Amino acid sequence: MVTTSCLAFLALLGFASAGSCPNAPRSDGRCGPDFSNAGCVAGSSYPCCSKYGWCGNGAGYCDTNICDSASASSCPNAARPDNRCGLDFGNAGCVAGSNYPCCSKYGWCGNGAGYCDTNICGIVSTPVPTSGGSCPNAARSDGRCGPDFGNAGCVAGSNYPCCSKYGWCGNGAGYCDNNICGTSPQSTPGPTPSNGVPILVNLAVPSHVGVDCPGIQSRWPTGTYFCGSPKPPGSNVYTPSCDQKMTVSYQGKSVTCVISFQAAGVGLTTGAYVELAPEAYAVLTGSTYGGQFTGATCTGVCNVARN
């Protein structure tokens, strides 16, 4: 039984939701700055707020509790050659005065919006470029856009007319609803492609990303959508299809994700199955939380449910 004195001791260690998330907890378990500074229920089974905005417990929650007023204000250790930074990467910092001086909440060194405005290492050495207004320069061939990429715009009227806060041209939720270039109108969703196989879609637990595919987040750029898939066919196959892609389409919207962990799907379906990380789930549904749904189709690596 957990006593009041035990809870107080845990709170002193930073294992309670307090400090910078002063508002009442939400019924859906979301928390932190992206969810109106909602906190978590101290003393409950889910007392701490992860960097992805979910209340939970243990590693990934209470060790990096973003609602804890005692959270780290600096990253004192030397910068890494792979540009990873922050608490999850040995408190590595970024190189002040370089092109990538600030650490994002996702653990990447970079510059501009999403890095220096939310610098988790706490030492902002470069002013944040203005992201409002417009991105007047020509679109790039690699699909990057916005202040961090020479104010490159996106091609209006194309399939990817809007610039996300992560500097990628795209469409739908995460792109046209917070278009940092401000000038590309959201295009009307087209019909769901008729090709592809039916697939059952579920919401992934953020901490599952990379569990079965070590280092995958360092191999793909910031803003990549990740997902989980059953193992591919074969009697001696023991790992998922790491680093391979699938495109999931639903009600006129689609998202391409990189397979980063195993999601069995057994007992839920006998067909194709995927678990989308919250950011990818939101592209299809407009929300980063919810349950499983049918009616989607898949192209690419669409593995069938299996243990």
UniProtKB/TrEMBL annotation:
Q: Say if the entry is tagged with keyword Disulfide bond.
A: yes
Swiss-Prot/TrEMBL keywords: Chitin-binding, Disulfide bond, Signal
Tell me, what is one Gene Ontology molecular-function annotation carried by this entry?
A: chitin binding
Q: Which cysteines are joined by disulfide bonds?
A: C48-C62, C102-C116
Where are its TM segments located? none
Task: Give the range the annotation lists for the signal sequence.
Answer: 1-18
In terms of superkingdom, the source organism counts as Eukaryota
The record's section on Gene3D superfamilies has: Endochitinase-like
The UniProt record lists the Chitin-binding type-1 domain at 28-77, 82-147
Does the keyword Signal feature in the UniProt annotation? Answer: yes
Cross-referenced PROSITE patterns:
CHIT_BIND_I_2
- Fetch the PANTHER family from UniProt: CHITIN-BINDING LECTIN 1, LECTIN
Record's protein name: Secreted protein
